[in-house]
Amino acid sequence: MKIYCEPLMQKVELSDRIERIVSLVSGFTETIFEMGYGSRVVGVSKYCARYVRNLNAEVVGDYLNVDLSKLRSLEPDLILTTTGVQLRLALDLIQKGFPVFVLPLPRSINGVWENVVLLGGLLNDVEAARELVMEWQRVFLEGCETYQDKPSAYVELWFGRHLRTVGGMSFVNDVIEYAGLKNIFSNVNEAFFVPPLDEVSSRRPRFVIFFHEPEYPIDPQELVASRGWNWDMKLIESTIEAGKNLIHDGPSMMRTMKWLREQIWG
Fold this sequence. Notes:
With 266 residues, the chain is of the alpha/beta class. The protein has 9 helices and 13 strands. It has helices spanning 26-34, 68-74, 87-95, 109-122, 126-141, 171-178, 197-203, 220-226, 253-265; strands at residues 2-5, 10-13, 21-23, 41-45, 58-61, 78-82, 100-103, 152-159, 162-166, 182-183, 192-193, 207-211, 234-238. Helix 4 packs antiparallel against helix 5 (126-141) and helix 4 packs across helix 6. The radius of gyration is 19 Å and the shape is globular. The model has no long low-confidence stretch (mean pLDDT 95).
């Protein structure tokens, strides 16, 4: 089959029935399993096992690098990547003759759901994809009418040693706001950027949410104290654990939403 790939601005020719998938994006891997097609996943990144229990597919690399000999041995019908920093890897694999389909990095929760439908199209099961999206939407919309005066929130993301916050051009902003908070930087037309800590201090958000990775752990209490942030706030700590990961765009985001609302509203 030929299917148009917008990031590549061309049609991509793939097998009419895709049976052997290598997914290098953990959110896509989790989505495929959630739709009931996990048996077709033969290769994954080293991060995918965080979100799929008892995953026994071959680990072929990480987000930016792959073992080409392992990849060739799997004889994939489809390799899934995304845009952003992963696009260079995708283009390199295409040049080497691999069947790659690139899905866009979502700028909003709607982009996440659109990618689910795209995956359904690749698997010839758009119906299952749309059912998953509708379930996801129900979880996100549940109780939203009660969130009138949203408390303010600052989100601090640690990508390794790199500090970033969230603007209005990321689905993470939507997760925060559907949970009932108001991101203090939602009006910034960027996805992620270095936070102006003095401005955070002057705005005194009611909730401060930290995300960090296990390789580079942080202590939120210690960070807050070192900055002299002594106003009345509640700290929330997000990690890579499925159901507590703010930056993960797979179906466990539904559990993350429920967990986050419990942290906010009790």
